Give the backbone structure.
Amino acid sequence: MGALFALEGVGLEIGGHRILHDVTFTVPDGGITVLLGPSGSGKTTILRLLNRLDVPTSGSISFRGDPIDQLDPLALRRRVGMVFQQPVVFPGTARDNLLTARPGASDDELAERLRAARLDRSVLDQLADDLSGGEAQRLCLARTLATDPEVLLMDEPTSSLDPEARRHLEATARSLVERGMRMVWVTHDLDQADRLGDHRVVIVAGRPATEREMVRYLADGSVDEGPAADEEDEGPPADEDDDGPPAADGPVDDIPSRRADA
């Protein structure tokens, strides 16, 4: 499996504050790759780098082999869509919202995007502000799908949803992936990472976790963010790690899921 995204030595500083440092890993070109780690570790920042909502101050990022700093940002964002943590709907109907992403589209075309997001065609005529939280988030997903992206970046899209709406959105994501969509999904919910993740990357204090930090975090959600863990920890031998060693093309990439069906 080739690389969907490849990050090499990526760093980001804002106002003299180091947000990310020496971020190096690959995202496989298939399934759902979950970025997880403690709150404030840099997961969302990495996600924003992948479609140039933010720009790194060092290092390089490529998308399917092409350096993203050589791609037109608007064209890139149509290929790499993003769904944010809080659903943001525009005034008017669901149809109006979808037409902002696909001007001139027919109702049949828009209904197809709604179906992909598990919303009924009748939603087209509903005011976006009248939708439930779960419906609004799926409308945002449908609006992103209206640009026919190759990849979806999902920034904790279920964090503000109730359990039923969360299940609906997760099922929608899995359905899209089964039809060929690629996703990078940010979460700090270990159970959700197990349910959804085909590949996992753990981020700690603005950098990829060491193997031992990764194993510990996936086991109980805790991690030692001290410099010793960053610089000296080589992690346990492969035969002590129930999940197996990381993939050869990245230090924390392609960690097998612990889902029962994996």
Summary: The chain has one domain: 3-240. The first strand starts at residue 3 and ends at 14.
